[in-house]
């Protein structure tokens, strides 16, 4: 799942080296924390959060195979 998030985010940002994805695995859910360079936060979130919502939709759909709920937090 980290590779999928990385693949989606890299073309959007100007500083792909500063992308940090951490995974927190809990009994009923998996939480991914995405951190990007401060200059790229607006590009990842998008106008009115549209890009962030689209990224979350793709990640949630990819996580449907597992029995756990998938969450993506953008820091």
Annotation keywords:
single chain; 75 residues; alpha+beta; GMP Synthetase, Chain A, domain 3
What features would you describe in this structure?
The protein is an alpha+beta fold. The protein has one domain: K homology (KH) domain (GMP Synthetase, Chain A, domain 3), CATH 3.30.300. It has 3 helices and 3 strands. It has a 3-stranded mixed β-sheet with strand order 1-2-3. The chain is globular, with a radius of gyration of 12 Å. The mean pLDDT is 92.
Q: What's the average pLDDT?
A: 92
What is the level 1 CATH name?
Alpha Beta
Order of helices and strands: HEEHHE
Q: Judging by the overall fold, what is the CATH architecture?
A: 2-Layer Sandwich
Q: Termini distance?
A: 18 Å
Low-confidence stretches: none
**What fold name stands as the CATH topology?**
GMP Synthetase, Chain A, domain 3
List the helices and strands and how they pair.
Layout: H1 2-9, E1 20-25, E2 29-35, H2 41-45, H3 50-62, E3 69-74
Parallel strand pairs: 2-3
Antiparallel strand pairs: 1-2
């Amino acid at each position: 799942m980290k590779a999928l998030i990385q693949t989606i985010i890299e073309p959007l940002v100007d500083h792909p080296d500063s992308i940090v994805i951490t995974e927190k695995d809990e009994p009923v859910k998996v939480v991914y924390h995405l951190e990007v360079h401060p200059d790229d936060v607006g590009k990842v979130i998008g106008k009115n959060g549209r890009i962030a919502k689209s990224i979350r939709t793709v990640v949630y759909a990819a996580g449907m195979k597992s029995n756990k709920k998938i969450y993506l937090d953008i820091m």
